[in-house]
């Protein structure tokens, strides 16, 4: 195999090709972050600018509605910030930005930790356990050798 010098030592041609090809997990995680952006923006809009149409969405999750409304308009502002952050991360993953990879890892780790706490507090197994499984799956995908190599992290 062809061996070429690189800043981290020597890299084979196969390793270089693997770094250049986008792993399947990257667009999947980016798509999930784009969806999270849309959801956070809609929820934020419904909190900041209440109206009949958006208020009907709260019928899908009345406990969340009560919680967000108890916090007040600041919840809407924080959700807009989250929407901006997830949008930046989704775009960054598509552009191969290491900071976007780190943001996604921290986001899914925090989400999994939150679902774990929620499981202990509420004992809502279906909702909490599914959140833990989904966060874990994204963390597993993001921490694969191929994805880390793609973002030029030491694998």
Would you spell out the secondary-structure blueprint of this structure?
Elements: E1 3-6, E2 9-12, H1 13-20, H2 25-48, H3 52-57, H4 62-71, H5 73-94, H6 98-122, H7 125-142, H8 145-150
Antiparallel strand pairs: 1-2
Helix pairs in contact: 2-5, 5-6, 6-7
Percentage of residues assigned to helices:
over 70%
- Number of extended strands: 2
Overall pLDDT, averaged?
88
How many DSSP helices?
Answer: 8
Q: Termini, distance in Å?
A: 20 Å
**Spans of 5+ residues with little confidence (pLDDT < 50)?**
none
| Main sheet makeup | 2 strands, antiparallel
Order of H and E elements:
EEHHHHHHHH
Can you list the strand order of the major beta sheet?
1-2
Kindly provide the radius of gyration, computed on alpha-carbon positions and rounded to a whole number of angstroms: 19 Å
The outline comes out as elongated
């Amino acid at each position: 195999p062809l061996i070429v010098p690189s800043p981290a030592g020597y890299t084979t041609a196969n390793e270089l090709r693997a770094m250049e090809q986008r792993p399947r997990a990257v667009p999947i995680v980016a798509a999930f972050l784009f969806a999270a952006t849309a959801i956070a923006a809609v929820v934020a809009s419904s909190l900041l600018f209440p109206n009949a149409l958006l208020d009907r969405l709260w019928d899908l999750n009345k406990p969340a509605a009560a919680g967000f409304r108890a916090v007040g308009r600041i919840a809407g502002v924080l959700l807009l910030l989250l929407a901006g952050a997830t949008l930046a991360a989704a775009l960054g993953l598509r552009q191969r930005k290491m900071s976007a990879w780190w943001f996604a890892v921290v986001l899914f780790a925090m989400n999994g930790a939150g679902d774990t706490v929620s499981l202990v507090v509420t004992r809502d197994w279906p909702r909490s356990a599914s959140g833990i499984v989904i966060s874990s799956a994204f963390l597993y995908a993001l921490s694969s050798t191929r994805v880390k190599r793609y973002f030029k992290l030491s694998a």
